[in-house]
Specification:
There is one protein chain. This protein is α+β, with helices and mostly antiparallel strands. The chain has 10 helices and 15 strands. A 4-stranded mixed beta sheet has the order 10-11-15-14. Strand 10 and strand 11 form a beta hairpin. Helix 2 runs antiparallel to helix 3. Bound molecules: zinc ion (2 copies). The site of one zinc ion has 7 residues, from loops.
Length: 377
Amino acid sequence: MATQKADYYETLGVGRDASPDDIKRAFRRLAMQYHPDRNSEPGAEQQFKEINEAYEVLSDAERRATYDRFGHAGLDGDIGARGFEGFGSFGGFGDIFDAFFGAASQARRRAPSRGADLQVQLELSFEDSVFGTSKSIVINRTELCGRCNGLRAEPGTEPQKCPGCDGTGEVRRVQRSVFGQFINVSVCDRCRGEGLIVTNACKQCRGTGRERVTRTIEVKVPAGVDNGSQVRLTGEGELGSYGGPRGSTYVVLKVASHPVFERYEDDLHVGLNLSFAQAALGDEVQVPVLDIDEKKETTEKLTIKPGTESGEIITLRNKGVPHLRGGGRGDLHVHVQVKTPKKLSSEQKKLFERLAETMEEEKNNKGLFEKVKRALS
Ligand SMILES: [Zn+2]
Ligand SMILES: [Zn+2]
């Protein structure tokens, strides 16, 4: 032997106990990687030849056994001497043919494909997002031509059988490669795989069978949607091709903010200003709420307990935004803020001063009590 040959198992990157399937898989993977049509790196072609040689031996049980016992020497005069040139008669041909051309030789003609999706934005008031509503949107999309009904030919005329492919939509060409000859099936260029050629094109769509149309569509917006929510209108998108279904139109909602309510998930938050007197003595006040049944903003009576602190949150259960799924509603949180008066009449000032005095007495009494308590303990 002139040169030291690489071990066949090493060439394929498999162990000596590899199953025929393991060997086949390894060969396919490497053949794809080093095929001269795909890999132009120096040495790739040599690598490719070695991979084929290794596979040729290891995929044949008898030759593999000989190789296992005697190494390359056992095969001298067999494949090793014959070299790469004899490739056309190799057992590996079928596999490599599958690996490279199996997928490519299947024509992609007239495969139905789904139309593209469209997206439109819809602005909603805060109330509409909480109550739900129905709105019209205008979309511009492709539809079948109204004149030829998508047939592309002038009404009264018929498309002709394509002479390029004899109406089959496919063109078969015999190609030769290092592996021998094979048949390449491709989509007919003249009719783009349709098998038909329109000689008298429809005047309205110029033979495309399609036209751009502006459509007004009604969108039902469910109660509880939020800013950024999407409503999917199935089948309202672009036209599919070769009988494929229409795409969808996604309506992206843009919800305006509310002057009073703040939304966080399905809960609503509202601020409530109270005077010192209301906070100290308690009161009954009206707070804004959203009436889902009547679909309007209204008010509801809220009892303020005596001694309510600024910053306290009073929660009204089930007065928030309806849950989009599963029913029920979020809560309404009323955030209490006690307002310090900025301007006082002389009358109010006197009252506050009197109040301050009584509070001072109370504080002193409390201090005295503490002192006594400490002395006694
Ligand atoms: Zn037309
Ligand atoms: Zn054709």
